[in-house]
Amino acid sequence: MAKRLATAKSNYTPFEQPTPQNVDHVKGDHDKLVSDEGYDILFEKSVKCPCKQLDRNKTHTTCVNCNGSGWVFVNATTTKSLILSQSKQLKFGLQGEVLNSGQISVTPLSGIVMSENDRITLLDSVGVVSEQPRPYLSDTGQVILKFNYIIKSVETLFKFISTSLPLQRIEEEDYEIDGNTLKLNADKFKTSDITFSSRYFYNPQYIIVDVAKHVRNIHLRDELGTLNQTVYPQLCIARLAHYTFNQDENNIDNG
C-alpha cells in the first residue's frame, strides 16, 4: 500500500500591496518654507536678442542690449527661492573637465514661473571672480573696462605691458566703479589698446539651464474624495552665468 506523503502546513501569507497614497502639496506650506529658508534673489526673464539674426546667428559683443550674451533680461523682480549647491554631484567630460561646475538647483515660490535662459542673482551672497575685461573708449575719450558682472569691489587690477615685464598694478585712485564697468583715470590712460586683468567681488549670478518639471499639474483628492487639480512648484537647474558662455571669448574664470 502506498504511503501518503505528509503535507506541511505553510505559514506564508501573500504580500499585501499597500494602498496607494497621494502625496499632498499644500501651497501655503511650500511658500512658507521658501520664505523662511530661501535666499533673496533678483529674478529676470530672458528674451532672445535680435542682434543674433544680423550675422548668421552670431552674437555681437558691442550690442548695448545684450552685451554680447545673445539674451536681453527684463522684468526684474525681487523674490525668494530655495537654493541648493550641486558641487557634490560633479560630472566629468572626456578630457577630465568638470561639466557642471557652478551648478545649483532652484525652487522658487509657487507663483514664480521660470524658464530656460532666465537669470537669477543671489542678493545675500558674495562671490569672487577673475576676468579680463573688454576695454573701449567712451564718447569723451575715456578708457572704460567692461565686465560681465556688476562689481561690488575690486581686489586687484593689473595692466599687461609685455611678456618680458611684470604686470603693472592699477591703484584704486586710478579708476571709478560704475555698475559693471571701471572708468579709468583719463590723464593716465589714453588708449583702449591695452590688456587688463582683474579679480573682483560680485553677487553670484546664474542662468537657468533646465526646468526639471515642465508638466506639474496633478490631481489630488480632498477630504471629501473630490479630485482637484493643483500645480507643484518648479524645480530648475541653474549655472553660473559665465559658464553658459564661451569662456575663451569672455576671458573669465573662478577666482
**Principal-axes shape call:** elongated
Number of domains: 2
The radius of gyration is 27 Å
| Largest sheet properties | 6 strands, antiparallel, barrel
Q: What's the count of strands?
A: 17
**H/I helix tally:** 2
Helical fraction:
under 10%
Distance between the termini: 92 Å
How are the strands of the biggest sheet laid out side by side?
Answer: 1-2-3-16-13-4
Q: Spans with pLDDT under 50 lasting ≥5 residues?
A: 1-23, 247-255
Q: Which sequence of SSEs, written as H and E, runs from N to C?
A: HEEEEEEEEEEEEEEEEHE
The proportion of strand residues reads 35-45%
Structural class: mainly beta
What's the overall average pLDDT, rounded? Answer: 79
Q: Any descriptors?
A:
five-stranded antiparallel sheet, disordered N terminus, disordered C terminus, six-stranded antiparallel β-barrel, mainly beta, Immunoglobulin-like, 255 residues, 17 strands
Task: Walk me through the structure.
The protein is elongated, with a radius of gyration of 27 Å. The chain has 2 helices and 17 strands. A 6-stranded antiparallel β-barrel has the order 1-2-3-16-13-4. It has a 5-stranded antiparallel beta sheet with strand order 9-8-12-5-17. It has 255 residues and is mostly beta strands. The chain starts with 26 loop residues before the first helix and ends with a strand. The protein folds into 2 domains: 24-125 and 203-255, no CATH class; 128-201, Immunoglobulin-like, CATH 2.60.40. Mean pLDDT is 79; it is low at 1-23 and 247-255.
